[in-house]
Amino acid sequence: MADSAEMQKVLGVIKWVQGNIKLERFDPKTYSRVYGRRSVAQIIKSGKMPYLNTCPDIAMTISVLLKEAGFNPTFVGHEHIGQRIKGPLVHFAVEVKIDGQVHTINTEGFNEVHIYRGKYDPAKSKPGRKHLGVVRISTAKFNRKTTFLSALGVRNFKEFGQRFKYFGYAEMRKTLKHVRETDSKRLFKRISTQKKRIIRL
């Protein structure tokens, strides 16, 4: 059965992001300085996203482009216990109505995006993780000037605790430290050369 016009539009947005934005190995100091502060316009203009911890940027960019295509997406933050970082993390995804039914676009990684019918389901999106909570954020004010911080309605990382119950400033610092410690040429090569896929669950 052929995809509907709306589904084709959604798939087109995801394919455009995967095809026009490349993964980049940011300098650790630069990464810490720019993370969360680049707007969607800056991401698109640069054509680059950091190869680690991509879900906020890709989910935010997809949300804005879906809005421009006439959809009304929801930005979703899922608090859970990480596997490598033993503490709270936040994963980001997108919910959007397609042909009258809510679908989830789960940005599991830049190269692999999952789509399934229904609202964001922690068991589908992060199987095996301890679920803490889901925060849904309206995209009514999202546009190309939106940054990750403004999308969350906060001014800086110290205010994360105002948006999330478990993931605050200390957890964000821990996450950024983990990214710096995990980064390597070998890991970048492995991730950046993976085949881009959209998986329908």
What does this structure look like?
By secondary structure, the protein is an alpha/beta fold. The protein has one domain (5-200): C8orf32 fold (Roll), CATH 3.10.620. 39% of the residues lie in helices and 24% in strands. It has 9 helices and 8 strands. It has helices at residues 5-20, 28-34, 40-46, 55-68, 122-125, 148-152, 160-163, 169-182, 185-192; strands at 22-24, 48-50, 74-81, 88-98, 101-106, 112-117, 131-138, 197-200. The strands form 2 sheets. It has a 6-stranded mixed sheet. Helix 1 (5-20) packs across helix 4 (55-68). It is globular. The two termini are 16 Å apart. The relative contact order is 0.19.
Please give the CATH class.
Alpha Beta
Helix content: 25-40%
The low-pLDDT segments are: none
Topology pattern, helix = H, strand = E:
HEHHEHEEEEHEHHHHE
| Radius of gyration from the alpha-carbon trace, in angstroms | 16 Å
CATH fold title = C8orf32 fold
- The average pLDDT score comes to 90
Q: Secondary structure elements and their pairing?
A:
Layout: H1 5-20, E1 22-24, H2 28-34, H3 40-46, E2 48-50, H4 55-68, E3 74-81, E4 88-98, E5 101-106, E6 112-117, H5 122-125, E7 131-138, H6 148-152, H7 160-163, H8 169-182, H9 185-192, E8 197-200
Parallel strand pairs: 1-2, 6-8
Antiparallel strand pairs: 3-4, 3-7, 4-5, 5-6
